[in-house]
Amino acid sequence: MAAARRIPEATVARLPLYYRALLDTADQHVATVSSERLAELAGVNAAKVRKDLSYLGSYGTRGVGYDVEFLLHQISRELGLTQDWPVVIVGVGNLGHALANYRGFGARGFQVEGLVDADPKKVGTKVGNLVVEALDDLPRIVEERKIAIGIVATPASAAQEVADRLVQAGVSSILNFAPTVVTVPTEVSLRKVDLAIELQILSFYQQRKTPNGDGPPAHAAPSKRARAT
Amino acid sequence: MAAARRIPEATVARLPLYYRALLDTADQHVATVSSERLAELAGVNAAKVRKDLSYLGSYGTRGVGYDVEFLLHQISRELGLTQDWPVVIVGVGNLGHALANYRGFGARGFQVEGLVDADPKKVGTKVGNLVVEALDDLPRIVEERKIAIGIVATPASAAQEVADRLVQAGVSSILNFAPTVVTVPTEVSLRKVDLAIELQILSFYQQRKTPNGDGPPAHAAPSKRARAT
DNA sequence: GCCTGTGAACCTTTTCACAGCA
DNA sequence: TGCTGTGAAAAGGTTCACAGGC
Fold first, then answer.
1. Within a domain: residue A213?
2. CB contact under 8 A, A193 and B198
3. How confident is the model at residue B168 (pLDDT cuts 50, 70, 90)?
4. Are residues B89 and B178 both part of a single domain?
5. Helices assigned H by DSSP within A88-220
6. Residue A211 lies in a domain
7. Judgement on whether residues B99 and B142 belong to the same structural domain of the protein
8. Each residue of A106-148: pLDDT tens digit?
9. Whether residue A125 sits in one domain with residue A89
């Protein structure tokens, strides 16, 4: 294994942006990019791009820029995208359904190879070209299909148990879409996407733009508290 | 308007977590919480909770903790959740469909009041209790329904144009789900959710766990619990 | 005694600015 | 000359540790 440099988390989170920008660039048969151009495509600034890439190695050429294909290869290796990562989705509701059909996953090597739901009525139904399987089959599914990454798309109330079962079944990375805090053993990686939280953050800044009651929507009663799924 | 303290971005991003934790706490008829308990529920540490809340004001009582209802009110006011924010979703594909039906939005005061698609075949169809409208109707929709927040759920290729049209129509906050960089005028707030990028970040860390391809996913003996959310 | 509120220390991340090399 | 690579400075965020009030 290569020297295993310590790459800052913030940098890791941006590598996929560079990766995507480089794919676009390669599609247009452009051979080299400057940090400035790459920054523009990735929506960050040039100094950051150079600093980030410097953690991977000295892959650029002074006075010229970065070789697109070469950098693409380095980043995809770093991100582990040179291999496929079969994933399983637990929870085939609205969101699970959409995720199962989302082509962006497969396009990056994340093939959905299992759909699982706790509801017996859903088990056996087809979604895309997959048949929904039972929650109890998770261990078998994970082992047989060599699945390392699980996606939780259940209601909040089921998320912790599902995460536990995924870990039990052998999954060691989890992406949680359920609007609740989930805890996993330290050796398991966990990331979350919370749709309502993103809107609440926007709301914070939006509110500061419309200083007081004159502009903002007045219709509908003051928001009541209710549980999200 | 109150003194308008400067609340750090990192804190703003955590307020929704506290908000959710407090809702759960209130549901259980608990009257006060300590920073430690709140930290546990929100998946952060106690010092952070205290520091974050201190930016809002001195709302706790030493030796006691925070009054749940009172803090809930303060945070919801800070986040702008005391009013409703009607939203419009542009792009009624898989994801737009799921988002339109996602109950978590409405539950937090983000009612979906418009569905828009560029495809004439989709215009006029019903999704939930909304009829899909044409892209050209955006200005009217935004004005009539007093919409400040737009959600982009189109393919990457359409995202920038859609964002431009949303801004043109008067929207000043955008949540982008399209896997591409979108730019907007500085006075418009923009947040993004990229599903494939989250998986790529997991892939980075996952890869480092299984040094090379052969290793079966280690059946981890649950040791320490990791911080979540 | 207990738990908040907060300066101060510490760590991470970003930005600057320029040396170094093609 | 042009653009990378990187020390150094600045900014931002987290954690510590304890004073302060209930």
1. no
2. yes
3. very high
4. yes
5. 94-101, 103-106, 138-144, 156-169, 195-209
6. no
7. yes
8. 999 999 999 999 999 999 999 999 999 999 999 999 999 999 9
9. yes
Which residues, in sequence order, are CB contacts of A140 under 8 Å at separation 6+? none
Chain B 32-71 residues in 7 Å CB range of strand D: 44-45, 47-48, 50-51, 61-64
- On whether residue B69 sits in a domain, the answer given is yes
Q: Which of A38, A143, A46, A41 is nearest to A88 (CA)?
A: A143
Instruction: Inspect the interface and report whether the beta carbons of A198 and B193 lie closer than 8 Å.
Output: yes
Give the containing element (helix H, strand E) for B15.
Answer: helix B9-27
Footprint of strand C on the protein (CB under 7 A): A 8-11, 44-45, 47-48, 50-51, 61-64; B 33-36, 46-47, 50-51, 53-54, 58-66
* Residues B108 and B167 grouped into a single domain: yes
Q: Is the pTM of this model over 0.90?
A: yes
Q: Report the distance from CA of residue B55 to the C1' of nucleotide D17 in Å, as an integer.
A: 20
Nucleotides of chain C touched by protein CB (<7 A) = 1-7, 12-17, 20-22
Mutate to test the interface with B, among A81, A83, A101, A225 (most CBs of B within 10 A): A225
Q: Residue B172 and residue B149: Cα distance in Å, rounded? A: 6
Q: How far is A96 from A18, CA to CA, in rounded Å?
A: 28
- pLDDT in the model for residue A212: 52
Contact A152, A176 (CB under 8 A): yes
CATH number, domain of B28, equals 1.10.10.10
Structural domain tally of chain A?
A: 2
Same-domain status, B155 and B103: yes
Last residue of a domain, one of B33, B63, B78: B78
**Using CA atoms, how far apart are residues A41 and A153, in angstroms rounded to an integer?**
31
CA A218, B191, A151: angle at the middle one, nearest 5? Answer: 110
Query: Are residues B198 and A180, on separate chains, in Cβ contact within 8 Å?
Result: no
pLDDT, tens digit (0-9, with 9 covering 90-100), for B130-163: 999 999 999 999 999 999 999 999 999 999 999 9
pLDDT tens sequence across A12-55? 999 999 999 999 999 999 999 999 999 999 999 999 999 999 99
> Is pLDDT above 90 for B93?
yes
Domain that holds residue B139: 85-195
Residue type for position A97: H
Last residue of a domain, one of B55, B78, B101: B78
